[in-house]
Amino acid sequence: MAPTTDTSKYKLNHSMLRIKDPQRSLTFYQHLGMSLIQKIPQPDAKFDLYFLAYDSPRSLSPGAHWSDRQGILELTHNYGTENDPNYVPCNGNSDPGKGFGHVCISVDNIQAACQRIEDGGYKFQKKLSDGRMRHIAFALDPDGYWVEIISDNKAEDTEGIKETDPGTYRFNHTMIRVKDHEKSLRFYKEVLGMSLLRTSESPSSNFNLYFLGYVPGANNDVNTAPLEGVLELTYNYGTGKDADFKYHNGNDEPQGFGHICITVDDLDAACQRFEDLGVNWKKRLTEGRMKNVAFVLDPDAYWVEVVQNEKLKERVKW
Fold first, then answer.
1. What three-state secondary structure class fits 9?
2. What is the pLDDT of residues 23-76, one digit of tens each?
3. What does the DSSP 8-state code read for residue 279?
4. Scanning 12, 91, 101, 202, which has the fewest C-beta atoms within 10 Å of its C-beta?
């Protein structure tokens, strides 16, 4: 009997960013409360992978195997970049590299959390007091990637609170810009098996936001702030009608963002399902040396890594 796959068991496991200096980046994300839960050195290929997540007793997946989680940030360090004065990762928010937008953490008390980040000596792309949106902020990591800060509680209710507990934070979502929202929604729902959790429409500003994730039974009515493993798609009106318009996937030059990753219940069966659905592949399981990793391309050519959830079926002893 051929193996089967159940998309309700999939997880949006991680998002990958290329970094210049691992010590500076690790210090920053650990200041945000994340823990280094896995490191995969690849000295022969001259790069290392660092996996960070919220792992306190109050987190959503304390102590879980890295493949059986949502809300992981993978940092990829290519040896030597830390000593290259000309190396700057592309943060995805300006041309010619616009595509990826940001990662996001949700916090308990947003005013206190932002003050703690500022007291740590880190800069902001947007402070809470900047602009019209006084309920979100954007910090800058050491490579200039944007880290959105949102609140799990109403911002007006936490105005006077001076304390914040990073042990309660969540790695909430990753944002990418999409050319054609209908094609992208169809791909992430029908091919990858995600649910549309909520939609935020801003016709006066000519964009919509779509939040997706693996939440069984969700029907576009979910409060996403307490969650991990959320994907935000940003659609700017009109791009789908422009035949020449294209977003940058982060893997062509200039490089920065690398991919999102889903973990699945049965890797072979999942990849066969994707094949049957006619996906575009960056790398099939059978290609190259890495026989335990596949990469599917979404409609904008963003890479989606597919790996085995080792808790559900042991395949690789990572």
1. helix
2. 999 999 999 999 999 999 999 999 999 999 999 999 999 999 999 999 999 999
3. P
4. 202
Length of the chain: 318
β 72-78/47-53 pair status: antiparallel
Q: How far is CA 287 from CA 3, 181, 284, 290, 295, in A?
A: 20, 30, 5, 7, 10
How far is 266 from 7, CA to CA, in rounded Å?
Answer: 10
Residue with token string 């072979």: 268
116 band by pLDDT with thresholds 50, 70 and 90: very high
Q: What is the reported pLDDT for 1?
A: 62
The neighbouring-strand residues paired with 230 are: 173, 213
Token pair, residue 303, equals 């890479």
Residue type, 148: E
Would you name the residues annotated as active-site residues? 148
**Rg, C-alpha atoms of the chain:** 19
Whether 264 contacts 5, CB under 8 Å: yes
pLDDT digits (tens, 9 = 90+) for 251-278: 999 999 999 999 999 999 999 999 999 9
Tell me how far CA of residue 31 lies from CA of 118, 122, 149, 166, 226, in angstroms.
11, 10, 14, 8, 20
Q: How many Cβ atoms from other residues are within 10 Å of residue 254's Cβ?
A: 14
Mean pLDDT of 76-97: 97
Q: What's at 141, amino acid-wise?
A: D
